[in-house]
Request: fold
Amino acid sequence: MPRTVLTFGTFDVFHVGHLRVIERAAAQGDRLVVGVSSDALNMSKKGREPVFSEGERLAIIAALKPVDEVFLEESLELKRHYIEQYDADVLVMGDDWAGRFDEFKDVCEVVYLPRTPAISTTALIEKISDLA
Ligand code: CTP
Reply:
C-alpha cells in the first residue's frame, strides 16, 4: 500500500522554505497531496490578500516534482475531512503549528518539521516593499 502524505499551506510568493518543506514532506511517504489555502481562507487567517491568487498558487504547487495532487483548502475546520478524503497516512506541518494538530493522531501520524530559518512570505513582502 502506498503511504500518502498530506500537507497544507498558503505558499504565497513561493520561496525556498516552501520548497524544502514540500521536499521533506514527500520524503515521509510515497504520494504527496498538498492543500493550498483559498484566497478567502488566507484573508481570514493572515488578514491580507495573497499576492498570488489561489489559481496561481495551485498551479505552482501542482507543477513541483515531489507533488502528486493538489486541492484548495477552503476551511481550517475541514482538516479531518481532508485527511479522510485523501486517505492520508501522515499529516505533515511546519513546526510553527507544533502541537496544534495532535487531535488527528487517532486517524494518521502527525509530523511537525522544523521551518527553514530566516525566510517567510511576510519577510519577503516587507523586503520588496522597502525596495520600492
Ligand atoms: N515553511 C517552512 N519554512 C519557512 C517558511 C514556511 O518550512 N521558512 C512552511 C510552513 O511551516 C508551512 C508551509 O511552509 O508548513 C507553508 O507556509 P506558509 O504559511 O504558506 O508560508 P510562510 O512563509 O510561513 O508565510 P507567512 O510569512 O505569510 O506566514
Observations:
- Residues 16-26 form the longest helix (11 residues).
- Strands lie at 4-9, 31-37, 69-73, 90-94, 109-113.
- The pocket of cytidine-5'-triphosphate is lined by residues 9-11, 17-18, 21, 46, 93-94, 96, 115-116, 119-122 (CB under 6 Å).
- The first strand starts at residue 4 and ends at 9.
